[in-house]
Write a structure and sequence with these properties.
By secondary structure, this protein is an alpha/beta fold. The protein has a single domain, classed as 4-Layer Sandwich (Metallo-beta-lactamase, Chain A). It is 25% helix and 31% strand. The protein is built from 9 helices and 17 strands. The strands form 3 sheets. An 8-stranded mixed sheet has the order 7-6-5-4-3-2-1-17. The chain has a 7-stranded mixed sheet with strand order 8-9-12-13-14-15-16. Strands 10-11 form a two-stranded antiparallel sheet. Helix 8 packs parallel to helix 9. The protein is globular. About 3% of the residues have low confidence. The structure holds zinc ion (2 copies). One zinc ion binds next to loops.
Length: 303
């Protein structure tokens, strides 16, 4: 079976990924040098220095040890992984167990991500974690809340009252300690991981994110119970939350294998009505590794 991954582009944001519920989900933004979830850790994930793990389910997290191991063998810097705090210690243990099996314990930078605590990747780029609605119950019965992440561009914008001044005048003001700029945040892309409907949809940086990667695991009417039981989105949930979202593009991920893709598309188009115009499926942008690239599919609202 040929390996496929999708490549979705919106303006200068490029997202490479693959996502199917229960099988594998990873999303890479190469220009931002980050990945959301690692899936089974394909080469696209290995190439970025920052990995944001939403939760510990195998389809999102299987490749964590491979990520650090391969980066070591490729002589890359160890890389940084950010995950919900309760997962950090088990992940360290996992890497140690792999050392017993494999003979090498790769260097790894593991960081606890906390909701609302920004992670600065560059002066002009931060990642803000937030809590989603996908509690993961561990075998000891403890519950780990899952996280979503928003990558936010940060700019310093000149205040309106100083706009007509010359360069030297601005420099002089700065030297006097006058604040001539204000900080402006522009949410570029939000990834919600696995989640049911939750309060996070009201967060401004989520609502106004230019691109929103959102799961829609179930679409068939008799799958609503499955969606509730697994804390996933059903297309009827999507129809309720979408009108309040100001995102330019909503990219659906994590569809169930139970429903043929064509059926899922037709159902989403029917359920979302006018809002379907800004909704696309990540896996419609699939490209084969070998052979000619398939043309990207149209948005689901196209005739
Ligand atoms: Zn999943
Ligand atoms: Zn999950």
């Amino acid at each position: 079976m040929a390996t496929t991954r999708a490549e979705f582009v919106h303006d200068n944001l490029r997202l490479i990924g693959s996502s199917l519920a229960g099988e594998e989900t990873f999303i890479v933004a190469p220009e931002l040098n980050l990945a959301f979830d690692v899936g089974r850790c394909p080469g696209d994930v290995l190439n970025v220095d920052h990995v944001f793990l939403t939760h510990g389910h195998m389809d999102h997290a299987a490749g964590v040890a491979y990520y650090f191991s391969q980066r070591m063998f490729l002589d890359n810097a160890p890389g940084h992984l950010y995950a919900p705090r309760p997962l950090i210690e088990p992940l360290r243990r996992l890497l140690r167990i792999w050392a017993d099996i494999d003979g090498h314990e790769p260097p790894a930078n593991l960081h606890a991500a906390e909701p609302g605590v920004d992670i600065e990747l560059r002066r002009d780029l931060i990642v803000r974690p937030f809590t989603v609605n996908h509690p993961c119950r561990r075998h000891d019965r403890s519950v780990v809340p899952a996280l979503g992440f928003t990558a936010i561009e940060v700019r310093q914008k000149l205040l309106a009252e100083y706009q007509d001044l010359t360069g030297p005048q601005l420099v002089a003001l700065k030297q006097q300690g006058v604040a001539i700029t204000r900080r402006v945040e522009r949410p570029l892309v939000t990834y919600c991981g696995d989640t049911a409907v939750g309060d996070f949809f009201q967060l401004d940086f989520v609502r106004t994110s230019r691109v929103l990667l959102l799961e829609c695991t179930f679409v068939e009417p008799d799958h609503i119970d499955r969606a509730r039981a697994g804390y996933h989105m059903h297309v009827s949930d999507l129809a309720r939350v979408i009108p309040a979202l100001a995102c330019e593009r909503i990219v659906l991920v994590h569809l169930s294998r139970r429903t043929p893709h064509a059926v899922a598309k037709a159902t989403v188009r029917r359920e979302l009505g006018e809002h379907a115009a800004r909704v696309v499926f990540l896996m419609d942008y699939r490209r084969r590794r070998r052979g000619p690239d398939a043309p990207p599919a149209a948005t689901i609202s196209a005739p």
